[in-house]
Amino acid sequence: MVNLWKSYIKEYQNYLRIERGLSANSIENYSYDLQRLCRYLDENNLEISPLKITDEHIQQFIYEISKEVNPRSQSRIISGLKSFFNFLLFEDYRQTNPMELIEVPKIGRKLPDVLSIDDIDRLISAIKFDSDNEENILLAHRNKAILETLYSCGLRVSELISLKISDLFFEEGFIKITGKGNKQRFVPIGRSTQKHIELYRVECRNKITPKKGFEDTLFLNRRGRQLTRAMIFTIIKDLAKEIQLNKVISPHTFRHSFATHLLENGADLRSIQLMLGHESITTTEIYMHLDRKHLSEVIHKFHPRRK
User: Fold this and answer.
1) Of 83, 138, 199, 230, which has the fewest beta carbons less than 10 angstroms from its beta carbon?
2) DSSP 8-state class, residue 20
3) Is 278 a catalytic residue?
4) 256 tagged catalytic
5) Would you give the distance in Å from CA 269 to the centre of its chain?
6) pLDDT tens figures, 145-155
7) Rounded to whole angstroms, how far apart are CA atoms 252 and 255?
8) Which helix (H) or strand (E) holds 263?
């Protein structure tokens, strides 16, 4: 079964990487959905190639996984499979897409968790500087610069860990971000955050010898390599535990908070969209649903019939 699909999946992965410019993480996620379908076919002794599989086979597969995953995950899997079969259509391997009649389960729009300004201040303040422990001081400067950058610039965690020193344009007040699909954008960075990054570079990074290939990487681990996504999650979760924050948070929570706080303070959606790097403003519009109290205040303040 694997051999029937292997070459097509390999071609598809190359297409995602070269033509669509997707990251290794995104390609892995797309591939996982296909591997899951292959396992289902194997377990049911269905020796069907991707060129012969029908919508009935797919529908049964979706029915089976619906017992294990929630509607949101089902929707993501269906989307991934549609992309694969569209690729086969584009390459003339198939004449039809078996996903055309597959219905996506209805899901509510999930609102992101948001930290208050006080929560963020407490998290950053929880970073301790132990004057008797040089290694602690080095990590504290780094972690403080990381949290300040996440919140002040609204970055994805993948954008943060891949940030380069050559991407810093402090004199102009911007940093250059390489986002999804290798699309680049410039994001404003405040002077306070600049100071934290410069302090980290002087007090911490300059004392670490970068490994080959990481000379330009801004945030390094103790061994001179780029930080992992998991490491950023760990830093944030440890700080949340330290201040007994009763919320499930992640690096993305800082990005959501960045957008929400900008909106609450009067920023327009188009500007927020550009800073977040959203391809569609529809994605940014989710923040309009976060604080109904704020929206109510806008109506009462600005609507001509408010009196």
Assistant:
1) 230
2) S
3) yes
4) no
5) 19
6) 999 999 999 99
7) 5
8) helix 251-264
